[in-house]
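Exercise 7.
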Amino acid sequence: MFDPAFVRMRFEVSLRFFRVWRPTVGRTVRAIEAGDAEEVRELARRLAVLRATPAVPTWMRDLMRRVEMHARVALSLQAGEAQQLDRAVTMGEGALAVPRTSWEAEALDRIALAEALISRFEQRADPRDVDAAIEHLQGASALCDRRESAERPRLSLREGLRRWNRQFPPRKLAYDTVQWPPMDEFMRSQLLCRLAGAYHTRFQALWAVADLQRAVIAIEEAEVLSRTFMWAVSSSSSGYGRQRGIVLSQLAAALVIRYEIFREPEDIVRAQWYLKDADRLMPRRDAESAGLARNRVHALVLQAEALSQPSDLEEAEAVLRRRQPRGPGWLLQVQIALVRSEISGTAEGLDTAVRLMESRLVDATPAEASELLRWLAVLLWQWAEVEESHPSRPDADATAASSPSPATGLWRRSADAWRRLAMLESAPAWRRLLAASFWTQFARNAGAGSAERAEAASLAVRLLPTAAWRGLDRINQEMLLTVGGGGLATTAAAAQLDAERPEQALELLELGRGVLWSQKLDADTDLGLLREHSEELAARLTSTRLLLERTSSTVPRPADGTATGFPVARAADPAGGAQPEVPAP
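Solution. The predicted structure, written as tokens, is:
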């Protein structure tokens, strides 16, 4: 029976959708991508007003809420407004407190809340946020898994296509010859990519090997699902080749990290297969192309280092000519030069890389200077060892024999680079500690006097409490305290005694051996006075202490304390060197 009121209502809803709701959502997404904080703030306020309008359908209200949450997360990052992030988390938790009308709605709400929680974890480092995010992503994945959700009716391919087409405009394809993925399987594949990213985030923060293994398992399952989609065989403008390439790149990045830790050849070989296939599928001008280029070059450098294959370095240089990597391009060029020198046993390319580093240091910002000095010192270190092993000039005549060798000058330049990095106050404390330790060692190799060696060793010991701060877990604290073989304090004391400063020698010995003990004494302060004023604050402080004193299982490290091989490991972070980029799903 024809109902004019119903027809009028449907017409008004359609009109508002095309004239108000959809343009507002689209403008918000574009403003977030453009990084316009003022426009994002205004559009988020407008979305909040539109959501409160009674005429808005439930599905549109849900979409507006998710976009508004995304906008508030972006505001917290772009404008530094922490309260926006808290509001986004509150919105997501409130949405899940209400019974959802469909499994898709609940899954999307869990995804939005998980992304907000991960952003808050990255800003505040509260492990409870990333734990909750992983739980929500696991729950959303279970909703999309037919095997784990028996109450949800199974979708036929035809019904899956209808739901898919309601989400994405259909293209002119022959449906009888092209297999489109059912909506639940497609969502689950994307969810597994996000879940792997969340595990990787927690792995980077807490350095627990179990999370890295879980990330690899999740992304491997997503890769298996993606084989059944049109992505696996298409590199056309439809975008499926791009999506398949992103999945392969993310899986390869996780395998490369696992290879750097466990040195299993199978991981680096598989990573190369996946990255080569992703390179074929990913359009060169795509936004994720830069991350793919960085991952592939890094993997090729590691494989060349492990197998002593110069052909891998040539292929890495070809990738750099074909694609622009994300991040500083000079970093990958320096890594290629280091490994080529190690394979050939010559200084080929090192002089060019050193000149590149020195020229960039002239106008570098403090953050850039920290990275440039680190790699400059490593390049000079490698060059000095090559000169000692294979002198570039003969020492036959007496004049050449009596003059300083080129290696001595290179040790001196490397020690100067480590000294500048150790004294750079804007650099991370752990990096300054490593630099001071290397400065102590290389000053001796360069024939420096006792005064310089005493200054270098003294600085290293005084940096120990700052580098091994109580925010790290116990195992990482102990790893930092063993920098230089664990003898920084005794080395510093010996250097001070050589310089005839016995009082300073005793002071440095006491400081070096009491870092963890002094932190323990500070943590054991009586909370009686605080508990009298606020039981809640005392309880929160107690729980925070327990988190800080956690000795969770971490990644097994080699005896030298590094997680990557020579020579790239010489400039590695304590967490395992230059990490590949895990692309966002």
